[in-house]
Structure formats: C-alpha cells, structure tokens
Amino acid sequence: MRLSRYFLPTLKEAPSDAQIVSHQLMLRAGLIRQEAAGIYAWLPLGLRVLKKIEQIVREEQERAGAVELLMPTLQLADLWRESGRYDAYGPEMLRITDRHERELLYGPTNEEMITDIFRAYVKSYKALPLNLFHIQWKFRDERRPRFGVMRGREFLMKDAYSFDLDEASARKAYNRMFVAYLNTFARMGLKAVPMRADTGPIGGDLSHEFIVLADTGESQVFCDRRLVEMPAPGGDVDWSDLQSIVDERTSLYAATEEMHDAGRFEAETPADDRLTARGIEVGHIFYFGTKYSAPMKAKVAGPDGQDTEVHMGSYGVGVSRLLGAIIEASHDTGGIIWPDAVAPFDVQLISLRPDDPNVAAACEDALARLEAAGLDVLYDDTDERPGGKFATADLIGTPWQLVIGPKGLADGVVELKRRATGEKASLPLAEALGKLTA
Q1: In terms of C-beta distances under 8 Å and separation of at least 24 residues, what long-range contacts does 41-50 make, across chains too?
Q2: Predicted model pTM
Q3: Of the four, 46, 199, 211, 435, which is 20 to 30 A from 369 by CA?
Q4: Tens-place pLDDT, residues 161-207
Q5: Which residues have CB under 8 Å from 430's CB, separation 6+?
C-alpha cells in the first residue's frame, strides 16, 4: 500500500478531551474518529487492526469447537420479556419502536436470541454439546461514555453460547472457553490474568474476568505474580480434560479493587508472590445453568426420552476494546508499539528521496519482494520531510521500518529499525529483506 494513495489522517496533537493514552493515540494515529459520544467511525488503519484481532478471536473459538453464525443487532423485546430481563436490564438498553409499533432493542448481548434459535432447531441430546458464537456490534447506552473505545456505547464483541445436557458437561464447556481465552490473548502478545468475578445482569453462579495488565489500566489488580509468568496452554491442549489448567490458574488468587478482596489476597498469597498492578477487562465468561433455558423452555429429549432443560454458558470478548487495551499495554512517547500479530502493516518502507531514481528503484524492488513474501507493507512514497516520516512511522507503530535513502545506497546499505526496541542496523538491502522475510 502506497501512503500517497492511502487515507491516513494523523494529528500532531490529541484533542483535549482524550483522557487516556489509548484514546489519544488512536485519534492521533488516524485509527478512529468520534461521530458522537461513545460512537466511532473506524478509519482504514484502525479497521486493519480490528480485523486482525477479530480473526485471532475467530480462530481460537473454532479451535475450541465453537461454530460461527451471525445474529442481527436489533432484537424483539418479547424475547427479553420471556427471560424476565427486559424490564430488569436498566437504562443502558436502547429501546426502539418501529413503524408498526413493535418494540425492539439494540442488543447489548444475545442470550435470549441464541436460546430462541437453539430451541427452534435442537430437540435431542444427541446434538449436544453445542457452542455457537458470533462477532457483532453491540450497543449499551453508557451514562458517561469515556476513554475512547475502552468504554464506548457501540462496540464490537465476540459472544459465544454453550448448550449442554447437564451441569458437569456445561462446566467442561466453560473450561474449554477459559483455555481458549488464555490462548487468544497470548497470541496478541498480552498478559491476561483470569479472576473470579461477579455475574452481574448476565446471571449465574460462576464467572471469570480476563484482565490485561497495563500501567494505565482503569482497575487495580491484586494477583499472584505466577499468574503473569505462567504461559498460555498453547496448541497441544488435550481438550478431553481441561480441568487441571483451570484449577492451576484459579488456585492462584486474583482480585481487583472493585471486588474489595485485597485483604483476602494478602492473607492467602505469600508476600514474595504478590503483584499489585493496573489492568483492563477484555473478556468475561459465565456459566448460568438453566437461567434462560427454563423460562424460555429450551429443552431436549434426554437419553431416557424425558425432556431436559439445557445448561448454558456465555463467553464475551471485547474485540474493539482490545485495540485500546493493547495500546495501553504497548506504547512509548513516540506512539503505538503493535505486537506483530495484530499490526496493521508488517513493514513500513520509507523512501527518503522519492524523486531520486536510484532510491525509487530500490524501494520498488523492496516493495515487490516483501509483498511476494506475503508481508503487508506501507510504502511511504510521499514528499514529507524525513523527520515527519519517522515520526509518523513511530506513531502508527508498524513493527519494522525499512529506510532507503541516497546516502545509504551510495554506501551499499539501508537502515532497518525494530519499533519495539528502537534497535537500528545498517546493512545491505538483500540482507535486510532476508531478515524481514525469514
């Protein structure tokens, strides 16, 4: 992609109402534009990152056995009346009446709709276990939307829903999602701490939040440092028995300031293992049994032929919120530092003299070879001064910067910079390309 033909509206200064680093940098780097309080347009650079995060989430859900569908953003109010949540949910729910006086709502979550879909088609225990997920926009009418995509009103979310014959099977489904979440966040270069949580308006008696550690996070986290050092399970998980993985993590106690359990944390965690940090919630999982299946009559015929209410769980990941969380956890004074897996481009190719035939030829050669190797390249072929080009490259956080100029070419070298470390090396173009395509 040539920057001269791209749409990248960067800003030198962040708007004064942007209070946290991720909001400031997302606006400055041209990832988003605010259209209304808590509602954002996703500009091309931001959309590229959003799609990469979405794909990682999708792949880990499918690897855990979940099946993707897509539900609409608008839902019938009558479905929520069946579950008893329509009046109980509160003013965060945006309620709508169409021209035929039908009551609708802009979905903040999808437990009712997915239960309605399930009960329409699944009649026998032989179709279980089943886990269905979608990645869709949600709306919650926050009283005070703030912090950019961290607490917006419209947001992209992955929500999955498991259906099982009994509690034991449902808890296995819960554990599979627990592990899938650990893998998901690890692939994005994030340290995510799982911790017991309140079930809130979703309901049920078992729930975990996943908190990404970031110095500028909105919550204070008290956790066992071994939770942070413990790696994600990886690709060789034995999905037939996941309980040991869950027990291993949940036995290392964690809490936030909102849970008011700092005293218990100190009592149960050895002093040498205590870690107090800041964090951001990016995922939440729930087991709630028959909370929705009972009032909505979602039943299957069991092995004995008797109708049985299915046991359910739900599992959410804030896909759009993850951009803010990643930036909060990975930035410096120059701008964003994207982990490789979610970066909008792999390499930023910077021409210091686009009007120089030798530089232009070398850049075109590098661009062709990098793209042939499957890398996403942003080629800065603009007439901007070198200082401005370097500042833009640091701001948008591309993992590698390949700089080609007349002086370096005369000496037979180009400059290769690793954004995360700031390390620079002068080396022949072929060698630089080899490092990038290895």
Answers
A1: 43/7, 43/8, 43/9, 44/6, 44/7, 44/8, 45/8, 45/344, 45/396, 46/323, 46/344, 48/344, 48/345, 49/323, 49/338, 49/342, 49/343, 49/344, 50/156, 50/319, 50/320, 50/323
A2: 0.94
A3: 46
A4: 999 999 999 999 999 999 999 999 999 999 888 888 766 666 667 88
A5: none
